Amino acid sequence: MKLKKRLLIFTIVSIIISTFYIFKSRKKEVAFYDFINNINEERKFNVSNSTPLDISKYMENKNINEEIFTNEDLEKLTNYKYANENISNKILTLNEVNEDIEYTFKLLKYVYGPYEYFGGDEVFLKKENEILNELPNMGNIKYDDIKKLLLEALSFINDGHFSISNSSININKNSIYVYNEDYIFKKDTKGYYTTINNTKWYATSIDEKPSDKYMKTTITKDGELAYSIGMLLNNSEDIYPINISLTNNKTNKTIDKIVNLERNLKTNKTPEASVTEKTLDNIPILKIMSMRPTNSNDNSLYDFVESAERLNKNKVLIIDLRGNIGGAESLWKKWLNAYIGQDIEITQSVGKKNSKAKLWAYKKYSERFSSDKELLVKINSSINNEDYGYWDSYLFKGKWYENENLIFVLVDDDVASASEGFLSYLRNIENVVFVGSNSRGCLLVPDTSEFSLPNSNIILRFGTGIAFKNTDTNIDGVGFEPDIWVNSSDALDRVLKLCERYNISSMKHMK
Q1: C-alpha distances in angstroms, 291 versus 214, 301, 421?
Q2: What are phi and psi of 446, to 5 degrees?
Q3: Nearest to residue 481, comparing CAs of 3, 33, 42, 31?
Q4: Using CA atoms, how far apart are residues 351 and 446, in angstroms rounded to an integer?
Q5: How confident is the model at residue 172, as a pLDDT?
Q6: Residue 484: what are its φ and ψ, rounded to 5°?
Q7: How buried is 252 (Cβ within 10 angstroms: 0-12 exposed, 13-18 middle, 19+ buried)?
Q8: pLDDT digits (tens, 9 = 90+) for 382-430
Q9: Would you list the DSSP string of 162-216?
């Protein structure tokens, strides 16, 4: 009888314990669903209330139809000679330097897409005159002197695609993520709190500012959704220790803690293939390192496109874009359209400045690098028929797309250009969560062309269009912010821990 009673008690206790863990697990799942629903509601609202930006005022430069450059000029400007010891050490005459500076600002006026957006003649001609007035006082002028002059004079341009002899023009405008995980915070109705010796301490201020300014949603080492201290810092600024003021609401005691911020750490490597696929914890992971083939034998991007319908059958997918600096948009658009089952439209405004110089640069590029003979015939036809001197433009109103699966997208501040275009489209799709740091911010100016200044051989690389994708502001240098901030080198491990903690891989579809 005693044995039966013990068995009964054991069974009841087991049921209670099992019920407790099931309830606890279910509570975790509900918390995660709430987190996802908040992201969806905010994005859906933004998409529904977005309108294409009127960019016509930035396309008012009618001078692109003038014959400002002769064929001889264009041959000189596309006679690419990359820097070597002879070029770097050559001393240039004042007339040679003046000619290069004048060519630079003519190219900007007649070819550069956002010339009017960044101030037009009023700003650019002033900068040109400042350089020309400074040159007579400089003595012997070499390649590096001109490069430095141009970088400093044009530093007002916030354009992630613009470079002068491989030096980015807005490198100091890039924002980097810095963070601290010494104290992990949670949130209740009273604010953000951390636990010290089993006591809640609320963050009343950080760096003498409201604490919510610095609180970022994160994933702890154990996979829990929480908050940590983080901020975006200008690349040219120093990282400094910051003070946290913590208050015990029961005793009203306040203590101060000093924490050091760490830079977001990236561990990206040169890829052997653009796309690789693997499975961890029953979750497929697409690692997309480039939006162009890495070599002539790399067909992984085409395999990637074919994977869409197969991966759509998985409840959870991780897309790892860390380190992807861009390439072409066409293949990821095909993949996304196949995955969702329809063409994706986002709110965007795009203008493209068609000049003779742009066509000439495309022609030279095609002659050197492209095997597409039909493209070269088309470019030559446009030049011969004078099919240039105008703007192309288009506006689209975006839509919100339902998606039953859960997609985690891993991001760092190397993600740029075409891969950021991928981000802008993914933001219109339900149940997509971005994890890591901000992207680089390199979207404003598409359709890059390359020109070589004839005397110094400095290479100018800039775009001939202007574009706003899913935003009405220029995000170059800042990029898209993630939903969950973590040190990007830890992003994959943290997402897998999160999936384990919240039973995500065993969840039903998110709908």
Answers
A1: 33, 8, 11
A2: -90, 180
A3: 42
A4: 9
A5: 83
A6: -125, 125
A7: exposed
A8: 999 999 999 999 999 999 999 999 999 999 999 999 999 999 999 999 9
A9: -EETTEETTGGG-EEEEEEEEEEEEEETTEEEEEETTEEEEEEEETTB-GGGTEE
Alpha-carbon distance 436 to 32, whole Å? Answer: 18
Compute the distance between CA of residue 495 and CA of residue 104 in angstroms, rounded to an integer. 47
The residue type of 414 is: D
What pLDDT does residue 24 have?
Answer: 47
Q: What is the pLDDT of residue 400?
A: 98
Please tell me the distance from the alpha carbon of residue 387 to that of residue 268, in angstroms, as a whole number.
43
Parallel, antiparallel, or unpaired for β 390-396 and 175-188? unpaired
- Token readout for 359 is 């066509």
Neighbours of 493 (CB within 10 A): 14
Rg (CA), the chain: 27
Amino acid at site 162: F
- CA nearest to 428, candidates 326, 342, 323: 342
Please answer whether residues 453 and 80 qualify as being in contact, where contact means their C-beta atoms are separated by less than 8 angstroms. no
DSSP code string of 34-62: HHHHHHHHHHHHHHHT------GGGG--G
CA-to-CA distance for 507 and 511, rounded, in angstroms? 11
- Summarised one tens digit per residue, pLDDT across range 256-305 is 999 999 998 888 887 889 999 999 999 999 999 999 888 888 899 989 99
Residues 120, 123, 127, 132, CA torsion sign? positive
Give the pLDDT of residue 63. 60
Identify the segments of the chain with pLDDT beneath 70: 1-28, 61-66, 371, 506-511
| β-bridge pairing 406-411 and 432-436 | parallel
How is residue 481 annotated by DSSP? P
Q: Which residue has the tokens 């400042």?
A: 130
Instruction: Compute the distance between CA of residue 203 and CA of residue 211 in angstroms, rounded to an integer.
Output: 6
Q: Which domains are present in the chain?
A: 44-54+267-506 (3.90.226.10)
Whether 466 and 115 have beta carbons less than 8 Å apart is answered as: no
What number of other Cβ atoms are within 10 A of residue 482's Cβ?
A: 25
Residue 238 φ/ψ region, left for φ over 0, alpha for ψ in the -120 to 50 degree band, beta for the rest: beta
Please list the alpha-helical segments (H only) found in 228-355: 300-306, 308-311, 330-340
Give the C-alpha separation, 433 to 452, whole Å. 42
Strands laid side by side in the 465-469 sheet: 390-396, 348-354, 465-469
Contact 349/55 with Cβ under 8 angstroms?
A: yes
Give, to the nearest 10 degrees, the angle between helix 418-426 and helix 330-340. Answer: 20
Q: How high is the pLDDT of residue 231?
A: 95
Which residues are CB-contacts of 300 (< 8 A; sequence separation ≥ 6)?
273, 274, 275, 276, 293
Is the CB of residue 97 less than 8 Å from the CB of residue 135?
yes
